[in-house]
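Exercise 7.
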Amino acid sequence: MPNRRLDAIDRRILAALQRDARLTNVQLAEEVSLSPSPCLRRVRQLEAAGLIRGYHAELDRGGVGFGLTVFVGIKVERHHEAQANAFREAVVALPEVVSAHLVSGESDFLLQVVVADLAAYEDFLTGTLLRLPGVTDIRSNFAIQTVKAPGPLPVERLAKADDELSTTPRP
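Solution. The predicted structure, written as C-alpha coordinates, is:
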Protein backbone atom coordinates (compact mmCIF):
# COMPACT_ATOMS: atom_id res chain seq x y z
CA MET A 1 0.00 0.00 0.00
CA PRO A 2 1.24 3.49 -0.72
CA ASN A 3 2.42 5.59 2.21
CA ARG A 4 0.05 8.32 1.11
CA ARG A 5 -3.24 8.52 -0.69
CA LEU A 6 -2.84 9.49 -4.32
CA ASP A 7 -5.04 12.29 -5.55
CA ALA A 8 -5.84 13.07 -9.19
CA ILE A 9 -2.79 15.32 -9.61
CA ASP A 10 -0.44 12.68 -8.17
CA ARG A 11 -1.89 10.13 -10.58
CA ARG A 12 -1.45 12.50 -13.53
CA ILE A 13 2.16 13.17 -12.50
CA LEU A 14 2.90 9.45 -12.24
CA ALA A 15 1.23 8.69 -15.57
CA ALA A 16 3.09 11.51 -17.33
CA LEU A 17 6.47 10.45 -15.92
CA GLN A 18 5.86 6.84 -16.94
CA ARG A 19 5.15 8.01 -20.50
CA ASP A 20 8.21 10.28 -20.58
CA ALA A 21 10.59 10.48 -17.62
CA ARG A 22 12.65 13.10 -19.46
CA LEU A 23 9.99 15.78 -19.11
CA THR A 24 11.35 18.92 -17.55
CA ASN A 25 9.59 20.11 -14.43
CA VAL A 26 8.09 22.99 -16.42
CA GLN A 27 6.73 20.59 -19.06
CA LEU A 28 5.39 18.25 -16.40
CA ALA A 29 3.76 21.10 -14.50
CA GLU A 30 2.06 22.29 -17.66
CA GLU A 31 0.84 18.78 -18.48
CA VAL A 32 -0.72 18.27 -15.03
CA SER A 33 -2.03 21.86 -14.71
CA LEU A 34 0.18 23.01 -11.85
CA SER A 35 2.73 25.74 -11.50
CA PRO A 36 6.34 24.49 -11.47
CA SER A 37 7.06 24.87 -7.72
CA PRO A 38 4.11 22.81 -6.42
CA CYS A 39 4.71 20.27 -9.20
CA LEU A 40 8.34 19.80 -8.17
CA ARG A 41 7.31 19.56 -4.52
CA ARG A 42 4.83 16.78 -5.37
CA VAL A 43 7.39 14.89 -7.46
CA ARG A 44 9.87 15.07 -4.57
CA GLN A 45 7.18 13.82 -2.15
CA LEU A 46 6.38 10.91 -4.49
CA GLU A 47 10.09 10.08 -4.66
CA ALA A 48 10.50 10.33 -0.88
CA ALA A 49 7.50 8.05 -0.37
CA GLY A 50 9.16 5.47 -2.62
CA LEU A 51 6.41 5.62 -5.22
CA ILE A 52 8.90 6.85 -7.83
CA ARG A 53 11.84 4.50 -7.50
CA GLY A 54 13.98 5.85 -10.31
CA TYR A 55 14.19 6.99 -13.89
CA HIS A 56 15.32 4.59 -16.61
CA ALA A 57 15.92 4.35 -20.33
CA GLU A 58 13.96 1.60 -22.07
CA LEU A 59 16.32 -0.32 -24.35
CA ASP A 60 15.59 -2.46 -27.39
CA ARG A 61 16.72 -5.87 -26.13
CA GLY A 62 17.46 -7.33 -29.55
CA GLY A 63 19.09 -4.13 -30.74
CA VAL A 64 21.63 -4.18 -27.92
CA GLY A 65 22.35 -7.90 -28.28
CA PHE A 66 19.86 -9.70 -26.03
CA GLY A 67 17.98 -11.66 -28.67
CA LEU A 68 16.51 -14.32 -26.39
CA THR A 69 14.09 -13.93 -23.49
CA VAL A 70 13.43 -17.01 -21.37
CA PHE A 71 10.85 -17.44 -18.63
CA VAL A 72 12.30 -19.90 -16.15
CA GLY A 73 10.24 -21.71 -13.53
CA ILE A 74 12.33 -22.97 -10.64
CA LYS A 75 11.41 -25.31 -7.81
CA VAL A 76 13.53 -25.14 -4.68
CA GLU A 77 13.86 -27.25 -1.57
CA ARG A 78 11.87 -25.95 1.37
CA HIS A 79 13.91 -27.56 4.13
CA HIS A 80 16.10 -24.68 5.22
CA GLU A 81 15.31 -20.98 5.50
CA ALA A 82 19.00 -20.17 5.13
CA GLN A 83 19.10 -22.04 1.81
CA ALA A 84 16.00 -20.19 0.57
CA ASN A 85 17.60 -16.86 1.46
CA ALA A 86 20.83 -17.90 -0.27
CA PHE A 87 18.82 -18.73 -3.40
CA ARG A 88 17.09 -15.33 -3.38
CA GLU A 89 20.33 -13.45 -2.86
CA ALA A 90 21.99 -15.37 -5.68
CA VAL A 91 19.13 -14.66 -8.10
CA VAL A 92 19.13 -10.95 -7.28
CA ALA A 93 22.85 -10.78 -8.08
CA LEU A 94 22.46 -12.30 -11.58
CA PRO A 95 22.44 -9.57 -14.25
CA GLU A 96 20.79 -11.90 -16.78
CA VAL A 97 17.73 -12.13 -14.51
CA VAL A 98 15.71 -8.99 -15.25
CA SER A 99 12.81 -9.95 -12.99
CA ALA A 100 12.19 -12.62 -10.38
CA HIS A 101 8.95 -13.49 -8.65
CA LEU A 102 7.95 -15.86 -5.86
CA VAL A 103 4.88 -17.57 -7.34
CA SER A 104 2.28 -20.19 -6.58
CA GLY A 105 1.66 -23.16 -8.84
CA GLU A 106 4.06 -25.61 -10.40
CA SER A 107 7.14 -23.48 -9.70
CA ASP A 108 8.29 -21.63 -6.62
CA PHE A 109 10.01 -18.84 -8.55
CA LEU A 110 9.51 -17.42 -12.01
CA LEU A 111 12.51 -15.67 -13.52
CA GLN A 112 12.69 -13.59 -16.67
CA VAL A 113 16.13 -14.07 -18.19
CA VAL A 114 17.70 -12.24 -21.13
CA VAL A 115 20.68 -13.61 -23.03
CA ALA A 116 22.18 -13.21 -26.48
CA ASP A 117 21.04 -16.54 -27.93
CA LEU A 118 20.32 -20.20 -27.22
CA ALA A 119 24.00 -21.05 -26.73
CA ALA A 120 24.31 -18.27 -24.15
CA TYR A 121 21.22 -19.60 -22.35
CA GLU A 122 22.67 -23.11 -22.31
CA ASP A 123 25.83 -21.72 -20.68
CA PHE A 124 23.76 -19.72 -18.17
CA LEU A 125 21.53 -22.70 -17.38
CA THR A 126 24.31 -25.22 -16.86
CA GLY A 127 26.91 -22.89 -15.42
CA THR A 128 24.71 -20.78 -13.17
CA LEU A 129 21.06 -21.72 -12.67
CA LEU A 130 21.63 -25.42 -12.02
CA ARG A 131 24.23 -24.48 -9.41
CA LEU A 132 21.99 -22.18 -7.38
CA PRO A 133 21.38 -23.34 -3.80
CA GLY A 134 18.36 -25.58 -3.29
CA VAL A 135 17.29 -25.90 -6.93
CA THR A 136 15.37 -29.15 -7.54
CA ASP A 137 13.74 -28.49 -10.93
CA ILE A 138 14.00 -25.96 -13.77
CA ARG A 139 11.50 -25.45 -16.60
CA SER A 140 12.37 -23.06 -19.42
CA ASN A 141 9.87 -21.32 -21.69
CA PHE A 142 11.27 -19.37 -24.62
CA ALA A 143 9.61 -16.16 -25.79
CA ILE A 144 8.85 -16.44 -29.50
CA GLN A 145 7.48 -12.92 -29.83
CA THR A 146 6.82 -10.09 -27.41
CA VAL A 147 3.18 -9.15 -27.83
CA LYS A 148 3.26 -6.52 -25.09
CA ALA A 149 6.42 -5.38 -23.36
CA PRO A 150 6.43 -4.29 -19.73
CA GLY A 151 4.69 -0.97 -19.67
CA PRO A 152 3.47 1.72 -17.35
CA LEU A 153 1.27 0.95 -14.38
CA PRO A 154 -2.37 1.96 -14.98
CA VAL A 155 -2.33 4.62 -12.24
CA GLU A 156 -5.14 6.55 -13.88
CA ARG A 157 -7.45 3.57 -13.26
CA LEU A 158 -6.93 4.06 -9.54
CA ALA A 159 -9.20 7.07 -9.84
CA LYS A 160 -12.19 4.83 -10.56
CA ALA A 161 -11.51 2.73 -7.47
CA ASP A 162 -11.01 5.84 -5.33
CA ASP A 163 -14.17 7.41 -6.74
CA GLU A 164 -16.15 4.27 -5.95
CA LEU A 165 -14.78 4.25 -2.41
CA SER A 166 -15.62 7.89 -1.87
CA THR A 167 -19.22 7.48 -3.10
CA THR A 168 -19.88 4.33 -1.06
CA PRO A 169 -21.93 5.21 2.06
CA ARG A 170 -20.08 4.56 5.28
CA PRO A 171 -21.85 2.83 8.17
